[in-house]
Amino acid sequence: MEIFITLVTMLAAAWASRGVWRYSRRYAHGKFNSGMKAGGTFLLVIFAIGLIQAVTTTAKRTPVNAAMATSEPAPVQQSATPSTPPPRILINATASEISKAYEENTVSADMTFKGKELKIVGVVSNINTDFMGDPYLTLKGGVNQFMEPHFSFSKDAMGELARLKKGSKVTVICTGAGDVAKTPMLKNCSLA
After folding, report:
1. What is the mean pLDDT of the chain?
2. CATH architecture assignment, domain 91-191
């Protein structure tokens, strides 16, 4: 990657110096002309330094040790019992608890909920889609009807959400995503 960046820098310097020299020959006269030639010379020097750096950087790289390249990797030992993934740790809460936490102290609520998996129980207040067409739910329990927790789902969940009705009791598993103006936001949700 270093060589690529060096070569691009050198090509840019060469292209720029070519333009400086061409401009100074056609349009510049007097003191300005000598300044333009000095600028072009400076860019050529930068090009030469970059070229030297690219050559020395390439020369300093050592090939992989021949003994290591030919040796076989150590066999991976497998345990007798198949490994099971660790159980998910879910924070159990209600929509009201999350709303109250964000209303009282956003920093504390973020430390408790943001980026963590939550299992939330609540009553559906609204079923809708956002401007991108992704579905979301709001659950009752917000500080007021305009600040109810917002649960975002993927478009794959539209079938499940289409069967819900306002007032239905649901359990949702989500990842905490902070808040927007004290309205709790949860993402990557799925119905449990």
Report:
1. 76
2. Beta Barrel (2.40)
| 99 phi and psi angles, rounded to 5 deg | -60, -45
Domain boundaries, the chain: 2-63, 91-191
- Residue in 177, 104, 91, 189 with CA at minimum distance from that of residue 143: 104
Residue 187: burial class (beta carbons within 10 Å; 0-12, 13-18, 19+): middle
Scanning 61-173, the segments in alpha helix (DSSP H) are 66-70, 95-104, 106-113, 158-162
Distance, in Å, from the CA atom of 136 to the CA atom of 154, rounded to the nearest integer, reads 8
Q: What is the pLDDT of residues 83-127, one digit of tens each?
A: 676 666 788 999 999 999 999 999 999 999 999 999 999 999 999
